[in-house]
Amino acid sequence: MKISPSLLAADFLNLGKEIEKINASEADFLHLDVMDGVFVPNISFGFPVLQGVARKCSKPLDVHMMTVEPEKWIGHVRDLGAAIMNVHQEACLHLYSTVQHIHEAGMMAGVTLNPATPVETLIDIIRELDLVLIMSVEPGFGGQPFIRHTLDKVRKLKSLRDASGSKAMIEVDGGVNARTGEELAAAGADILVAGSYVFGNEDMGDAIRSLKNL
Ligand code: DX5
Ligand code: ZN
Questions:
Q1: Which of 74, 76, 93, 128 is the most buried (most CB within 10 A)?
Q2: Reported pTM
């Protein structure tokens, strides 16, 4: 299993130290939640903060855009040196060209689905995607309980992906811990995002290892 700890749950007064711990851990990515207070009812951190994070972080960056018109930010995300840019299906009027522009900027393209958005909506684009990010909570806040219907969505997405010949990885975000992580692994998830479970643990390395070994 690949693990993408979500910086949203980090101690923002000690961001440098938190990133050093991530660098020293077995995490595969660092997950960065960008919010605009419009697409979701919250604001996290913006690009000036992320530039500092990107300079210090040695893990590939997995950027989760929770903004309207995420295509406007492709250049900013590219300039961070991000590996993955995730945009919400619900925020993109012209999803196909947004995915193309992310690829042209040299990044892996991910499409994110809110809990109420069915996986079938991706049927005509899944072959273009490097990743699908399934939200297992409503986006905007960390520390929410896992929505159990997500397990069905992951199973459905896996068969849709395999039937289409797509190589898209399946990533899940929200309420992930050792217990829900185990169920997600069995359902077919490839990458787990975890915020409070990782940063709320006394030993971040242990928490990451417990998910990695699933
Ligand atoms: C929520 C974010 C998540 C969040 C997950 O909008 O997309 O990445 O940090 O937090 P936990 O793991 O605490 O549910
Ligand atoms: Zn996220």
A1: 74
A2: 0.98
